[in-house]
Design the sequence.
């Protein structure tokens, strides 16, 4: 398989490797989304870090589709917090810190309620959100290669 | 016709307007008041900033219009789409006014209002009307057979056009919001300098995310040849970026005008202020023999005047909101959704 465990500094109780990475083309995003979902079970918050054009929103759309979200998934840069619903009526949050200027602005967005609600939550440009994380989360980083090629690095922060 | 006081606080801008039959009596907002009253820019995203501004803005609007609250016939507010917290502040404020002064409450759809902004000043469009609404958060093609009979016939699948401008501008080292900077520099540049591919999207929908990737690749390649590539070619890069964004918009606008023929065509939203887009739309209209409507700059961006104007239509139709009105951050735009509570 293309999933490469990178290290295993996490205790045995955690059923997945602490990190893996893979190279993919943006065309393969649906397949990548399903792979990540397999590993992410039970971890609601995803921090997505990558430059403009890396494919963050594209990945979120693919993961949302796999989760059964029926709403259109588009860039949350302007709206900052977008809420989608799955066919089963669960909420999925798609958040974007691109336009934020400081951590204090998170209060006005009611972000703690969202983060503590244990609902699936994708955060693009998460710099200001990191201090608010108090549970487990997945961190995804992108390296942009030529054309549609990307390296996706996934790691887990499971400190409680 | 009624006199209406309207509040817009769906995103970054706080704005209050009063309008009546004789037009907009007062229109005040953050950009007009804050620098005078507060002497600087206040972090505008926070809902509490909206809250702090609403009362002074409302007082100022009443003073400018030269009327008292008793002379207002209805209170209108943007109920969505927008930031949940920001919307809630405006809604709570206007609900209170409506309750205390015992006047009807009107809940306006922000994207409907962007289109209705064309009815603030003459020449007003006639129907059917085809409108391309382009802003930092939205890109929509709307066909209206009447003011309250319309459908969204195309929209963006990923980024809004304004976002494509802003993010492209950031990659080119220009400040936020980038649209006006790109527009200004594009005038001095060569649009054929870079060939940025236009995404092929079915139907009348738009896509701009591929453009970011293409631009990013081209910039990396350019910087490989010379480190100051962006600085040296900034105007050409702006012109190329602008051409690609406008080409996507105009391609779909053209296709829409063939599928939905209408003698009146309108641009709305903040990106409607873009010179290149206005020119391209004018060319299209000249080819098609239709009239092009461009709103005044102050009615392109988010503003309460368009909310007041739309509320006039709602008032005339007797379409009022109840006191249990809630914010609708992702309110879809359709005729049916205007009449259904969330």
Sequence:
């Amino acid at each position: 398989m293309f999933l490469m465990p990178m290290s295993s500094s996490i205790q045995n109780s955690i059923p997945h490797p602490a990190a893996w990475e893979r190279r993919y083309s943006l065309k393969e995003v649906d397949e990548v989304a399903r792979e990540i979902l397999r590993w992410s079970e039970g971890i609601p918050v995803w921090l997505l870090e990558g430059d403009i054009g890396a494919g963050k929103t594209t990945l979120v759309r693919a993961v949302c589709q796999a989760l059964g979200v029926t709403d259109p998934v588009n860039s949350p840069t302007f709206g900052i917090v977008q809420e989608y619903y799955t066919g089963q009526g669960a909420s999925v949050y798609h958040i974007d810190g691109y336009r934020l200027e400081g951590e204090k602005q998170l209060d006005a967005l009611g972000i703690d309620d969202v983060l503590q609600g244990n609902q699936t939550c994708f955060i693009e440009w998460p710099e200001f959100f990191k201090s608010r994380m108090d549970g487990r989360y997945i961190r995804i980083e992108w390296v942009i290669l030529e054309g549609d090629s990307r390296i996706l690095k996934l790691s887990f922060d499971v400190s409680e | 016709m009624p006199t209406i006081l309207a509040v817009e606080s769906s995103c970054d801008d706080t704005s209050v307007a009063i309008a009546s039959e004789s037009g907009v009596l007062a229109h005040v907002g953050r950009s007009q008041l804050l620098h005078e009253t507060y002497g600087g820019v206040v972090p505008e995203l926070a809902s509490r900033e909206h809250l702090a501004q609403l009362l002074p803005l409302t007082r100022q609007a009443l003073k400018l219009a030269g009327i008292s609250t008793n002379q207002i016939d209805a209170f209108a507010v943007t109920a969505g789409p927008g930031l949940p917290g920001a919307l809630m502040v405006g809604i709570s404020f206007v609900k209170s006014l409506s309750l205390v002064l015992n006047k009807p409450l009107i809940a306006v759809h922000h994207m409907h209002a962007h289109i209705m902004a064309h009815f603030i000043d003459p020449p007003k469009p006639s129907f059917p009307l085809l409108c391309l609404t382009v802003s930092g958060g939205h890109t929509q093609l709307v066909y209206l057979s009447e003011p309250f009979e319309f459908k969204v016939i195309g929209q963006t699948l990923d980024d809004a056009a304004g976002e494509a401008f802003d993010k492209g501008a950031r990659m080119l080292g220009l400040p936020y919001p980038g649209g006006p900077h790109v527009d200004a520099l594009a005038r001095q540049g060569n649009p054929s300098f870079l060939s940025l591919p236009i995404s092929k999207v079915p139907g009348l929908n738009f896509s701009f995310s591929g453009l970011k990737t293409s631009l990013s690749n081209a910039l990396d390649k350019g910087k490989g040849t010379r480190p100051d590539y962006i600085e040296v070619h900034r105007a050409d890069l702006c012109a190329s970026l602008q051409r690609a964004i406008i080409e996507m918009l105009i391609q779909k606008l053209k296709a829409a005008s063939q599928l939905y023929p209408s003698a009146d065509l309108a641009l709305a939203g903040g990106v409607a202020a873009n010179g290149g887009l206005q020119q391209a739309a004018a060319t299209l209209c000249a080819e098609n023999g239709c009239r092009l409507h461009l709103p005044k700059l102050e009615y392109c961006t988010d503003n309460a005047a368009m909310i007041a104007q739309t509320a006039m239509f709602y008032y005339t139709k007797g379409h009022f909101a109840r006191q249990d009105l809630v914010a609708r951050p992702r309110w879809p735009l359709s005729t049916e959704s205007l009449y259904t509570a969330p």
Summary: Strands of chain B lie at 4-8, 15-20, 23-29, 74-80, 105-109, 129-134, 139-146, 149-155, 264-268, 291-293. Chain B touches chain A through 39 residues (CB under 8 Å).
